[in-house]
User: Fold these one by one.
Assistant:
Number 1:
Amino acid sequence: MQIRSIFPFFPEAKALIVVKPSDTDLDWEILVRSAQGIVNTESPQIYVEATPHDTHWRTFYEQHYGFTVEKTLTDREFLQAFSAAFKGYTLTDPRVIQTTNLAATLAGLEHWLPVHPRHEALIKKTGLPLKQDFRGKFADDVQAAAWAVDNLLPHCTRKMMATQCVHRDYWVAKGQKLRDYLVYNRVFQIDLGTNRKHLAERDLHYKILAAMEPPAVQLGWHCVRDQEKEWIAEAAQKGVFSLCTTGSGNLTIHGAVPQQKADYSQNHINPKSVSVDQDKVYVTFYLTDGDAIWAMQNLQSDNWLHPNRGEMPFGWGFLPSLWFMAPGILEYYYSTKKSGDYFISPSSGAGYTYSHMLPNSELYLKESWELMQHTAQICGNMVNWNTYEWWREVENDPAIEREQKLLAGAPGLVCGLGGSPYAKSYPHGRCPKVHSVFIANSGMDNSIDIMNLVNEIPNRPLFLFLFVQINRGSFDAVWQDYQKLKMQPQIEIVNMDAFMHGLKKAADRNWVKPNLYDQTPALRDRHLVQPGIANFNIAARMLLELHEVINLKQPERLERLDKGGWQELAAREATTMGKDWNAFLNHFEKGGLVRPEEESNAAAYFAFYVVWALMRGAILSRGIYANNRKKCLEDFEKEFAASLPIAPFRKLWKVWENWETAPHSIELVRGILADIKAHLPALQAVVTSE
């Protein structure tokens, strides 16, 4: 199995030395976690116990595997006790935070500790020599990254790479726990912008991806300057899949827990026992951030600890790669599983990727299916995004057919973390694929939305798949929904295998239509028209605001572009971002995400997503589902050409299509926005009159 060969085979751990951190300072944490990786390279023994979840796993390993704690040390005692394992230290430059990544990479290559200057005096007490001093060496983070690509990358593993965000004011940069694993595996660690705003950095990122030897994996998580779907897509195109491992600590110990079972099992329903009532509504729930190892480590955001877990049919996403990455964690979940719990492969099989973009997609899918079988997960979530061209899931029939062929042993597949009853599903064939109808969130009465769908869609039998957004309290919200829904005789809550087998039987009897749901006026109004008008109105306000910002002089223009939540429109609806206007205008309050030389790229990028949100809202207001970028322009022209000129919209689409080759300036963006603004009142009158 080639995917398995990407990851290390750890010697078995037994006796642990527990290290208790004394400081929450990020630079100190990077030092300690890197030191853990260096020491564990010789023998997996250092376990950093920083959270209650760390204590949970250490206790489980003691009880279930016979692990012992040899001693407990403070982090300072640890560094002194194991100073012989370290061959020196590197000084980082506090002015150029990227040097932290360079120093951590050198920790893996040379076993030099990455040291912030304020910690140097303490490290000197260990007698370690200074081996590298990055102070004053680089003008900025990009120059530091370019040096690292030329001088460090050639010596690192070609099977793994890692993004470690350097923007300390934002949450993504707080996840430093992974450093032990990166150091152990000699992984190149860097932070580079990967989307169209940061073309110079993206070119460097492409060099790193080109140096990988697929199949390869991208670790860590995207920086705050990028969108998740962009980061995943850029890697996928180069044959690299991803694992969300930000905040995932002690993987050099979790990976050294002995594998107790070659194969797991769970009680899949016998297809022959599944009956379908033509008058019923079948509902299945599925909670996941299963591609994220941190979600496996923090007990699914503690939802696994709910006292009523197992008392209702409920799907849990579990990364099948836990089978070799953290077999003890996998064993825990199986050993505590209850009758209603059902395990489902999350996101994209072995990891998180968009298989329609992978040049080695067949290998990836085949090996994902092998891992799914080892972990007894026969149902799977397979996502495919491309936010440059599609708003929701990519409607790529050949890619779906490839998934259905290579995962043909599955009863069915799901997708759609961004649910809509209008998104395309594939209910027929040996392996149906179903898009979620909506996302169930904590703090909501999801049973009301389910009953609305039941009343709006006359199809029977009716099959409704719901993603459950992972948050603390998510399972409790669904448990409350379950108490209400089980009182409805026409509704049956089932696990995903029963759901899919029932769907196949209904399809065989021609009870299910290709589009899955009748598009009734009530459904159209609540899921297209109403949200369309709401999103249009917010997007119109955003367009006026962006036009005003673009007309400012420097430095205020760059500051307003930098702080606003414009880039979030690549992944979130305008209504979501605009519900608190002040929060939208100051979404990135600390700034520092757009460099002056990137301003014109950022302006064009922001303008595109604001205008696309405006157009999608207008199209939806006419009861037309809007997903593909090019079709959105066609539908917009068809519906609204009589009300306003389409030329400025076409012009912006050309900017997007020719991004790499045609220059775009502030003046160009200003002109496009001015033209659209001039005709906005006429468009508003048409949209809001419907």
Note: The longest helix spans residues 521-550.
Number 2:
Amino acid sequence: MTTNISFAHDSIRTTFVRAEEESQELVTVLQKIVRNAGTLLEVRSCSIALLDATGTTLVTLAALQRHGQKLRRSRFQLNEGVAGWVATHREALVINDVRLDPRFKRLGRTPVGSIVCVPLIDAGTFIGTLTASSNEVNTFTPHKTHMLTVFAEQAVLAITNARHAEYARQQANQLEMLMSLSRGITTRLRADELYRTILSDVRRLVQCDLALLYLHQDGAQDLLPVAELTCPVTASAYEQEMCATAVKIDNLQHERVSLYNTHSIVTWAATHKHPILHGPEFITLEPLASDTTLASSNAELAAPLVSKHILYGVLLLSRATPFSSEELRLVRNLSNMAAAALENVSLFHKVRTDQEQLRAILASSSDGIALLSISGSILEVNPAFGNLFGLTPEQAVGMECMELFECQQEDGHTQCNELCMIHRAVQMEEALPYTEFDLVIQGSPRSLGLSITPVATLTTPLCLIVARDVTAIRDATRMKANFISMITHELRSPLNAISGYLDLALEGVAGELNEQLRDFIRRARSGSENLYALIEDLLLISRADAGQWRLNRELIELQEIVDEAVEEMELTAQDHEITLTIDDVSTIPTLYADPIRLQQVLRNLLSNAIHFTPSGGQVRVTAQVVENHYEGISSEHQQVLLLRVSDTGVGIAPELQQRVFERFFQIANANMGRKGQGLGLAIVKMIIELHGGRVTVESEFGKGSVFTCILPCLLT
């Protein structure tokens, strides 16, 4: 018998109600029917029998009785006796003299002379018989038989209505019970309590000898038994109430069930995510394997616990007698609630685990971490954050950002508006720029680095502050900057002297020079200029790191800047057989910029281009004025200057194009013997950004590069 057939068979069985379990309300209706039928036919013997749940036996449920006499519930098979014949043929039967008809079988001592029996049929389905008898022969005329047949049709309506009313009451009671059980299930957040509640509740809904709960973990290939309840159906009501609460979750007698086990209905229910039941006989599980059979001395019901298409476990019930489809429906409804509860428990434990991990990470983090509301008040901090400000976490929580960073003091930090305007980060929906500032904490000067990042939540937006003590790093940076500044200052004096004497020699102060000696001195003079430029670069970076670098803007002509830069690099280009060309830039309007720094930009770009261009290549300088549509350039400037330096060199790989502006970063070039210091392009980026512009690079590996400086320096 396949699983689908078992379901179909159960659905047929639900058409019938177990005769022994008919409600008192229905029995009362049946009693009224037989009284009215007796009155209608003027007889003292009338009874009504209904088909039981098996569909094979008629059971007498109401009859005209002598006062005080107990109803005798007669049972007879189909095609047995008068009622059995009527049930089989589904037509009325009149026997005028029962002595002459073998179909009549005497029941009891009451004398019977004639009998009439009519079928009770509801929408084509036979449900029972209505029988009247008399101790005299030839009592039931065709007219009386017709009246009883019409009366039977009305009786069927009364029986159907009574059964529907009883079914509705049962459904309401079951729904109320399920709602009550669901409240008990869904409020459990501890796994062991939930397991006990599920098995106890299902045992109250459906009588069974064994209830077993299997759990399925994500990614596992088997089902783990986590709880079992053993309670015999034959136990007394008190014993059942006691053992219904004795759920075992330790030392279970059952073992894991593999999802590849084709001999288990638990596996079938889990893999198909569909309930299944079978009786105490061999069945074939065709969906798994056509040659696989199960043998069991008990009937079993397996219901998967599925929520949102995810399998959380399987519920297995077992007992000696078969389960009905009504019981399957109850277990299925409860299993849906249990699956949702298991999902809630899983989510609860996941959230709690995540919270514990997050707290552990925050507690062990060396960086200070704080969570702020949009109003700027501190909601939560880790110990490291409190230590940075000389506070305990409890003292820091509730403080205002302005108070923490001493913004309310007269000498408070100048960037307080940036630091404490948390709503600015929320409105921008992006992190504020990293900021470093100095504070006096408990009498000691401290340098802190601060990052403010908005945090999106379902309710109120928040901000995350990450703070780090950078006092030692800033002190080391300052010491390094001071050292570099000192060294460069010390090198500039002798280098100026060298350059001065070389200039005097070239002017012939020490006598006339032959052509070869003059060429030697010119090359030495060019080398000293390159060395001077390197020292200037180092000095520039040290000043920038120390925050001492400022632009000296003035009105300038771009032609002069380009000519001077090209003149400085022309000899180097000739030495390496590289053609250096300049487009006419005389039409470029007057600029408002720092001429020394702009010349330094061009010199560094030209040096870089020559450095990576092989002999016979070309380096070109161009400039043009275009409309401002560039990201990152203030919209106040309608036009910008594009200053380009292009070459036909080796080019830059795409993954390295943004790294070339990092300090001391150098591209390995096996074909070029000349090496730089990795500072030129970093300084170019610094100078251009100080002018409010930006620098970009376009390059194709093996074909050359184009560096473009976008400058909003046009005089308007």
Note: The first helix runs from residue 3 to 13.
Number 3:
Amino acid sequence: MKRVLFVHAQREFSLAYWVLRQAVQQYCVTDVAFFEHAYVLDDVDNQETLRIRLALLHPDVVLFSCQNWNLKAFLEVAGWVRHFWPAATIVLGGPQVSSLLAAETLLRTHQSIDFVVRGPGEIPLCGLLDTLFAGRSDNVSSLSYRDGDAVAHTAIVHTPWRRERLFTWSNIELVQRLREVSQVSYETTRGCSSRCIYCQYPSENCDVEMLDEKLVLEELTFLCSFHIPHLRICDAHLGGTRERAKTILRHLAKVNRKTSIKIYPDISHVDEEYLDLVRASGARITSIGVQSTHTPILKAIRRKSVQAFRRQIRMTLDAFPDTPADVILGLPGGGVDAFRQTLMDVRRLGFSWINVFRLTVFPGTELATNVCHFLGEGPIGNTATGVVLSSPEYPLEQQQEIATLVAAAKLGTALRHTAVEVANRGNQPDIIRLLTQMDAALLHRLATEVENLRTPVPLLEDIFVLSTAVVKLAGYTPALVTALCFDILTRAKWICARNKATHFIWANEDQLVPVSLVVARGGGILFSWELEKQSISTIGNEKDASGNGEKYLFFDLDVFDGREEK
């Protein structure tokens, strides 16, 4: 029996391993034993652990699943695998190596690599293993390999995505693995209907392929009945079509009881029924991909504007207020002013949070094949993994301004009522512009505290500092104080819910009355914000309601009349 070791970097569950393993069992002529090894990048002992595994297993083929964030580590591993086991065949696969350019470059520069599988790997891998082990001479699709001094490539053949049921009680080994993990990734489709220039989806395998609907519903029933704590459906857009997405959500609403489910919707699919089904299914929307609102940028990257879907976004945020927007920094066709405008537009769209990602140049994408055309003639700074640090449109001298904008956006989207009140006053700038007038170090610290969901609430003293700063910049009015109070408490309530804090108390938000927040988790924080007195009242160290003697932290700060902290 031949042995294949599949090396991935997923800490818990690798869907690719189980799908490839099933394909090998179904389609390979040769008797192949398929093993996995999770090479956890932040584990200091991972190299020696893998060496021991290799020495005990002595595999005939070592297959690496390559992503942008693990390729460098896996190339190093491939080097010493070749040193210790020179007879082993080393194969790379995964999205980071799927383009012709990436495969050719890797095979020319890394002699330890024997083959690169491009695109979906199930059928090509089976063909390669049969060629290696059974002496077949068929031309295997989707492969890159050395042919003398040259690198040869075979074409990707689009085969329908068909597999047998994988998630089932009869799959004893998988059932055992699921008992050991808290999160499972699952996909009902492959590919994406969009053709963004920076994305790895289009390349040679751009068609959207859908897994058999009956099989999907059966497997989702199994996963929900297994009570997997967290299920991430990693389709580019859930279901591929609106009706298929609704069918999946409708089924989840029937079978899901305890599983937390994350999905990525196509915003154009959203309507009232869609959102009702998301809510009924127990799912949450991971994010909405805005990327940019600047028309020249959208034209350059060939992407539709979310501005055309304002109604769907508003409906989504009404149903799921904590849904973040994804924005990409460094896209061609705009510059810093366009980035600033996008951040302000995202806030006006009503998002309560924003994820900012720097543009990454992935090999094989349209962006990668003509970087200078898209990013401009001039110096381009990027990391080893292709993250763009600076470009002619986003020069080094503007990086401090960019960093301040990002911090202001993160803070500004969390201050929704405050932003409305500032805008209603007429003589004030947008909340993001207002926050950029704060001390830069203070702004970044506050943005970091708001972003940190591992603590029940942001540091109490920083809440007071933020309130003081905003009031000083915008000018005191009772309405502004009220808006600030509600924004801070709403954010705290959300963080408390995420962290399962004990309880949360606040008064009628339509009246200017005392408002109190009580949080207990390990230790506790208690403060009372009396709007009528416009001050923070000191209560002192008290026992909580249960009398267990937990100490609370109190800060005494006269916030709104301009005096210094006592």
Note: The longest strand covers residues 523-530.
Number 4:
Amino acid sequence: MAENEGKKSTNFIRAIIDDDLKTGKYGGRVHTRFPPEPNGYLHIGHAKSICLNFGLAIDYNGLCNLRFDDTNPTKEEDEYVNSIIEDVKWLGFDWQDRLFYASDYFDKMYEYAEQLIKKGKAYVCDLSADQIKEYRGTLTEPGKNSPYRERSVEENLDLFRRMRNGEFKDGEKVLRAKIDMSSPNLNMRDPVIYRILHASHHRAGDKWCIYPMYDFAHCLEDSIEGITHSICTLEFEDHRPLYDWFLDELEIYHPQQIEFAPLNLSYTVLSKRKLLQLVQEDIVAGWDDPRMPTVSGLRRRGYTPQSIRIFCDKIGVAKRDSMVDVALLEHCIREDLNYTVPRYMAVLDPVKVVIENYPEDKTEMLKAVNNPEDPSAGTREIPFCREIYIERDDFREDPPRKYHRLYPGNEVRLRYGYYVTCTGFKKDPETGQITEIICKYDPATKGGDSPDGRKVKGTIHWVSARHAIDAEVRLYDRLFKTPNPLENRDIDFKENLNPDSLIVLKSCKLEPNLADVKPGQRMQFERKGYFCVDPDSTTSNLIFNRTVPLKDSWAKLEKAEKQKAQKSKDEKNKKDSGLISFKDFSKIDLRVGVIKEAELVKGADKLLKLMVDVGEDRLRQIFAGIRKAYPEPEKLIGKSVVVVANLEPRKMSFGVSEAMVLAGSGKDNLSIVTFDSDIEPGSKVS
């Protein structure tokens, strides 16, 4: 185990749990869950969630469930269920007897749906999916009530039961929650909670033809299982009010939903839908293709569970999105394998070397170190004879400056062997390719040292030609050639695929100690990188996958990040002084705005919602923290204010705030900046 593994890192989720334990919330329990949908294979982003949820349960002596959110029978398969179970086990986590499925609770969910209908909080709607979307409204326009919203409880119960009995076609009717079609949160505008799907379920078979929507099912599953902290990724932040609404209306046990930033990894795509596209279009060789960021793909490529857990610990848990450099993941596997795997010699692009003064019939065994980082790993013997293979790029007929490997007249060290000097070479007359290199060796330099003290600058690896075994070697690289393959939405993400993400080398020459390796076994090929034996490998057809090259750029990146952090700190100190440049000030777009609507924001004791005319063909929605100063917001209507018009829109749980109004703090209270005279909306303020 690498030295970093096992160290607990503090994050905001742990802080919440610590506070809950202090106050006795949930009776001092910590119970989490990992709830994948069985509609694809798990990827490295899921691994982050697995490590977080199971890790918290372990650290707080709590429990963690493995639960499949199998509410969509058209996309779910047993293959995905089995792969997820295998991946979680492989990562080193155990859910004991707590393996659950959403489908375990379908009967109970149906009861809860009827309970909402009886309370007048749900209704059957006949609008089509497109009509529901149209009625829903936009971020700046409220939705419209469905014409079926006021059906009686009796009619809704009858229709819902007929939906369950299969009397209607797919999409003909849905069950919707009755909440608020004018809510600033679109998720609260009468969301669909049940839809008709005449599809066989992978576990329930044909028992059901109606299935709950994820938002409805998710909170109920958490409640039924007694989860304390329901940890989700950020895309569910806007769904939290709906999560709370269902549990409160049903008056059942209420876990706490907490959101964290999902993993974004450079040179990688972590969209399950896009990964499925790569599989279905045969761009990769399945979900476990070693170029895929899936857990099964990483496993086949040679990654260890420890390296992935260390990576997840290093990146930590944050509240906001950021991009993690894939070099850190590569660094973690190098660090882990460096201390644990044996070294071997393998020549991937071989050219023959004939040592002309070495006896033709002689073979001797040389001693090689198995792992210089682990003395307990011992040594092995490798055969040496008159003819050997070396890498083609370890020889140059006309070497460039500072080239220290083999070339005519130059002497190099053979790893664990002798000093050899190039005396000649042969070429193919048609292609000009080097076909054979002629050398002489110094018998006194066995083991790699010279009795007379002369030094050589180059050391190259080799394999005995007489004893070498053949193998196929697959050199895997990053699947995409750009850091963010999804950044440009105007082009197909597949245009960013790396054409060199897989290079297959045949007839590679390996030392004979590798003859009996087994699938999954990991090793380092000296000077080449870390490799593992592919599952398709056999004794007669050895196949090795490159996990990562030896070069580790993360140390340089880490140094650069430290320098960047120091620069940022210096800039922050400058900002803290209260000084900004005129250039910075000129970037602020201040405009006159006229408040047309003003109202309190339900559930927010500091905010007012303002609809402001800034000279455009629409009103801008602005949430301002001035409620204390203006307890009667309608008195603001008609006032001219200063609006910062070029801020990036801010997504809030109540809606999107599209600008900011300037406010100042007087001796009595906070107040917004207004104009005494009428000024045209949109006029620039200088």
Note: The radius of gyration is 33 Å.
